[in-house]
Structures are given as C-alpha cells and as structure tokens.
Amino acid sequence: MKKESSMQKLFAYAGNYKYLTIASWILSAVSALIALLPFYYIWRIMREVVMAAPDYSKAQNLSVLGWSAVGYALLSMHCCAPTLQPFTYRRICGAP
C-alpha cells in the first residue's frame, strides 16, 4: 500500500477548487518577488549617496527611488498576497 503524498492530500482537500490552490501558489511567488523590490531600491539609494560623497548635492533621483521603494512595499502588502483570501474564506467557512 502506497502512502499518499502531501500534494495528493492537498488536492483532495481542495476538491473542485484545485485551480485556486495553484493560483495561490503563483500569487504567493509574485508577492515574494515584489516584496524584494523595496530592498533593491533602498540599496540603490544607499549606492547613490555613497557614490556622491563627500558632495551629497550630486546625489540624484533619491525621491524617485524612495517613492518606488514605498510603492512596491505597499503593492506587496496590499495587492498580491490577499487576492484569494475571500475565496478561501468562503470555501472553508461555507459563506455565500
């Protein structure tokens, strides 16, 4: 008798909603990649400041890079991760 794999158990639990499970994996990966972008922009800000030393007035695009970091941080928190949350809640709780 073969032991049932974790993936088989997961898809058995998902029932007819297997596509939501796969979509949640994809959206989770996208969210993880977007969550890394603020760190990239912070690194670019630091590099710009260090390269401009000792005359810091030569540092350019700091506000654009800063707002890009903030924007991607907000995007990763509010858009990608909770996208399927209402569907999951309805499936588990039986809400309409």
What is the average of the pLDDT values? 82
**What is the C-alpha radius of gyration, as a whole number of Å?**
21 Å
Instruction: Give the ordered list of helices and strands.
Output: HHHH
Q: Helix share of residues? A: over 70%
Q: Could you give the distance between the termini? A: 39 Å
Ranges where pLDDT stays below 50 over 5 or more residues in a row are none
* Tally of DSSP helical segments: 4
Quaternary structure annotation: single chain
β-sheet strand percentage: under 5%
SS content category: mainly alpha
Reported for the largest beta sheet, the result is: none
> What is the tally of beta strands?
0
**Shape summary:** elongated
Description:
The protein is an all-alpha fold. It has 4 helices and no strands. The protein has helices spanning 6-14, 18-52, 62-80, 85-93. Helix 2 (18-52) runs antiparallel to helix 3 (62-80).
Salient structural properties:
4 helices; mainly alpha
Protein topology:
Layout: H1 6-14, H2 18-52, H3 62-80, H4 85-93
Provide a compact summary of the structure.
This protein is an all-alpha fold. It has four helices and no strands.
